[in-house]
Amino acid sequence: MSTVTRNIALKDQYISLYREKSGEISANSAPLMNTFRKEAITRFASLGLPRKGSENYLYADIERVFSNNLEKNFSDRKISFNIKEIFHCDVPDLETNLLLLVNGRFYGNGKMLKKLPGGIIAGSLARAAIEYPELVEKHYGKYAGRSDDGLVALNTAFAQDGIFIYVPRGVKVEKPVQVVNIMISENDLMAQHRNLIIADEDSEARIVVCDHTLSAHRFLTNSVNEIFTARGAKVNLTRVQNEHNGSSQVTHSHCLQEGGSDLSTITVSLHGGFIRNNVYVRLTGEHAENHTMGLYLTDKGQFIDNFVYIDHAAPNCFSNQLYKGVLDDFASGSFNGRILVRRDAQKTNAYQSNNNILLTDDTRMYSRPQLEIYADDVKCSHGSTMGQLDENALFYLRSRGIDYREARLLLMFAFAHDVIQNIKVDALRERIDDLVDKRLRGELSRCNNCAMQCG
Known about the structure:
twelve-stranded mixed beta sheet, ten-stranded mixed beta sheet
């Protein structure tokens, strides 16, 4: 069977599944979300699944990942477990407002929305769409809806719930909001959830997202995040991907920033068999600032793929992309970063850097930094490096009495810390430093809180 034929057959399977289950999907979601489904499945029928070798998915074999025979649940199935017994956050002194997603559904013991200090609303997106329809309707589908990625359309057609966070005007969130995505099942499972984060004018929030797998089965997640930062808002979002090697994860983050806003996202990929992270940012008002960063540590055949698109649609804006990776033991990865500077976006400052350390000859890393500039008064740069550790730096450390192995570890840790130091939650930053140090030393062979031994 040819690649094109296989893709069409797989697309038809998902379309048939939607037609068969559309009633069940709608009955277990919110009316507002349901209004987007028919158009989304039509769009998916037109776009299909992204093919390996296409412009934006040059090295990621999405068809292989999505062709696995995974269970798909569209009813609210009660899972018999005590969350406190099987999962605990192992970050010391991390005080957060905790939200849980279990298999793509909000887990709230009957309380689907939380009212936090300052009027902050957090909890189930499906519930928020019922209780606050005008607020959700104003943003839902407005940023990811323009996407020409078939996986976003697939998510819109099938997603029934997810996380909703709203920070009102002028409110500063003192305690970070922590979202824990848990996959746990007695069978191989696919989940698709939708998250919406709204930061109103002059508000500030820190958000921590942690991905975990808690049973030894194959999992696939196809999630979409829509993030809106209004004028003067500041949002710092840190994501820690820590799933076992039998998991596959595709995330799409579509962000819109108004003038004077500041959005910083950091994705730390510690574990996962197949990870694809898509980030789209549009800067629509003057003096908006964006920092998009990533750190990935891969080995044992893992695959990590990061795609970043920063759209400068207004003048006097700043963006910085910083991605770093350490690859070992026949792992592979890809980075595709783009900066678009539109004709009217004068006085743009935009920077992009992707640096990689390849520890063995059987690792593969592909990097494609790109600039597309239509304005003439800008400062833009991009660069990519990959190779072994700096022999001169190794020699310097060894000349100071540090043995070869420890010198290598020190250099790799310093390389990774360049990204980690940007995490704004102190307790989390210290814990990530510790996890990265152990990962580099080979002491952390599997993701925390996981029943599946990958090492």
